[in-house]
Amino acid sequence: MAGNNMKSIICCLVCWSLATAALSEQTLTPIPGKVLAPDFTLQDTDGKTHRLSDYRGRPVIINFWTTWCPPCREELPSMNRAWHLIKEEGIAMLAINMGEDEDTIFVFSADYPSDFPILMDQSGEVIEQWPVKGLPTTYVIAPDGTIAYRAIGSREWDARELLNSVRALKE
What we know:
Layout: H1 2-25, E1 29-30, E2 41-44, E3 49-51, E4 60-65, H2 70-86, E5 92-98, H3 102-111, E6 118-121, H4 125-129, E7 137-141, E8 147-152, H5 160-168
Parallel strand pairs: 4-5, 5-6
Antiparallel strand pairs: 1-8, 2-3, 2-6, 4-7, 7-8
């Protein structure tokens, strides 16, 4: 896990340097083909269990992040604003914290509150199954369970163009 943490720190710093460009573009990278999203079972910070397969039939935004990642911190408030825009539309949003414990996330949440589920991948098993290249990395899953889009680096998730791309998956 220590090697993975160092790799993630380096990737996070690379993504941080790209954050300004990403924020100005507000784009998602389409994933060609029908790549099935790896299923997972994780608990949220309230102790509730979430399985990705339970969300089948609706779009899901999945964000991989950590509390020590500057672009993750920049992005989280916009994700919370986006959640309030989409939660009644049948679109799910999940944030998967990589490798940190509940206490660390709880302290972080005082400054960066979120109203959508924060899942904990303390062992790093889930992130190993996903092609995460840096932090934050966000995937948009189509209702059929395939990966539709990827975003490496932070975005303003309440931007109309991003949310409209996700909304279009419902059609």
